[in-house]
Write a structure and sequence with these properties.
The chain is mainly β. It contains 1 helix and 8 strands. The model is unreliable at 8-23 (pLDDT under 50).
Length: 165
Amino acid sequence: MKRISCMALCIAAVSSSWAYSQNGEIHPKQSYGYALFTPGATLGDGAAATVALGAGAEGLIKGGFGASADVSYLFYPAGGFNEGFGLFSPGVIYQFNPGRKTIPFVTGGYSLAFRDGAINLIHYGGGFNHWFNDRWGMRFEVRNHTQTTSAEYHLLQFRVAFLFR
């Protein structure tokens, strides 16, 4: 499990470094929203494919440091839409070169999985945002959610989002 998480973070870090080759500047704005689609997989007691749909927002506080929060509904395609749960994820973000068109970032924080009860998780990951203009963009991110009490269960997500301001 640790090996898979490390590989996912390495892939995110390498793909983020490609983003530095962009030289376009945009007018930096402090906050934006996003709508996300997230294919992924649970790893641990057995692998299972997952899909999540949701929305969130981020705001820069100072320099590249900021705060984020999103909420999504995660379900298992094999079990159907009714077999899912909610996922609320507040966190922090650091963006490298926030005034550029393509902005690599790292993120981490708390996650709450809920349905009939609740499970505490932590999340970490990275990726990049690409802005087509001052109002619209796309986000590509790899994120791992894991239990706070045990690192045996992982929820690995490949997040694709439409950004708007």
